[in-house]
Specification:
homodimer; alpha+beta; Jelly Rolls; Arc Repressor Mutant, subunit A; 2 domains; 6-stranded antiparallel β-sheet; 5 helices; 10 strands; 32% helix; globular; DNA-binding; DNA-binding (chains A, B)
Chain lengths: 227, 227
DNA sequence: CGAGGTATTGATATCTTTCAATTGGTGTGG
DNA sequence: CCACACCAATTGAAAGATATCAATACCTCG
């Protein structure tokens, strides 16, 4: 799924290129613009749609009993989001960069509704999602702060980075708090790790939201679990 | 999914009772016994089947580059395991208690093969799995060692426990190392937490593999994320 | 009964969090 | 256009939690 931070494994929940619709599905999917700060759906909403992100970035969150928030994932172009648990969405989903999605009717999931093809697409996206999340598990449980942040940067750069000369640059549309919540760290720790990477000339930070990878090799090394 | 350790949310990937097969699917599913210590499948195997566990316990693991092992999940009766990423299995799967499964042909997933009904069942199991894994995320990232172990015990007891008088008992078919790997802790920490729970008269341990819950309320309390 | 793996317990080290202060960036109104 | 205010990010010092290293106790199986 989305930003899963496992360079070593499968490349997140993206639709297989091959299975692009070759004919229009029964109920035509709907395009939808989504402004920054607005919710595509909220936890508990009736899941009437499933969405494929065509551009922008979404943040999927959940709120714990005690009010603390967990960032479940970041949705990037190509991802499918909004898998319902039953009939309800189980996360909040907010655009953190101007986004566009394609909405598929939820009951495309139900037998005899929606094309077999759409159903296939979604099923396979779900299976990829599961695989990706399993990768993320390993991340969360067995990696140090440095390894987590480095992995996060790598994944983000791989999926949204743009090359500049020999280097690659990439925007961090999310706040430090978002990153921290996603990785299971605190803001301070994330900040400290970024500072360290900066001081070691692995990355450069411009205006806190833009990162330039100066030494991808070192970053990759830092993301590896050191025994 | 399997043992997801989120009492506060959805109850893991089990098939919805309602959607039990009402008629035999095209290709009849196969029953299969699985002895302790034997593998149902291994990472990298071609995923020819998907399995529904009818009894026993499985351990799903993955191996990291450095040789360390991550326990992705424990499969309990009612769970569906073996979701393929593409055509390959992405975890090892070993029985840790004498088990029995129903095997469904993998290509039941592909359009026009297998009954629509089986496909539905699997799709919905996959969706539940995703939801359950998201719960597990929160576990791994925002809970302390005590909270993790307590949550783990609760889930296990809820799914496999047997009442004895006012108390409930339950077997831990997995080793401390398995539990530690699953929760992202070390064996020592798991052991220390169990000892503490024992000293506080919340649980009793008999022969290290059997746990008796003496104070479920206290255990539930210990599993809650304390601000 | 003995051997070998598994679990527990203890002491110490390491990492991350927490608390607190400072700096930096952004937007608004004078 | 600058100044202020507010929120986000960084930095520092100390506390807390878990990991690591090491030793001992406990099962289980030949």
């Amino acid at each position: 799924m989305y930003v899963t931070l496992s360079n070593e494994f499968s490349p997140a929940t993206r639709l297989p290129e091959i299975s692009r619709p070759r004919r229009a599905p029964a109920a035509a999917p709907q395009r939808k613009q989504q402004a920054v700060g607005t919710h595509l759906f909220r936890e508990g909403d009736i899941a009437s749609n499933i969405y494929e992100i065509t551009s922008g970035v979404f943040r999927l969150t959940r709120v714990l009993e005690n009010g603390r928030r967990q960032v479940i994932a970041f949705g990037l172009p190509g991802d499918i989001i909004g898998f319902p648990n039953d009939t309800l969405h189980h996360t909040d989903c907010e655009a953190i960069a101007p986004a566009e999605v394609i909405a598929y009717r939820r009951n495309a999931l139900d037998a005899f509704e929606g094309s077999q093809e759409t159903q296939q697409r979604i099923l396979h996206a779900a299976l990829r999602e599961i695989s990706a999340m399993q990768d993320h598990f390993m991340m969360l449980s067995h990696k140090s702060a440095m390894e987590k942040v480095a992995s996060f940067l790598i994944t983000l750069v791989q999926r949204t980075g743009t090359p500049i000369g020999n280097y690659t640059t990439c925007t961090l549309p999310m706040s430090r708090a978002d990153i921290a919540d996603f990785l299971g760290l605190t803001v301070e720790t994330v900040s400290r790790v970024l500072t360290r990477l900066r001081k070691e000339n692995v990355i450069t930070l411009e205006r806190t939201k833009t990162v330039l990878i100066r030494d991808m090799e070192a970053l990759a090394l830092a993301s590896q679990v050191g025994d």
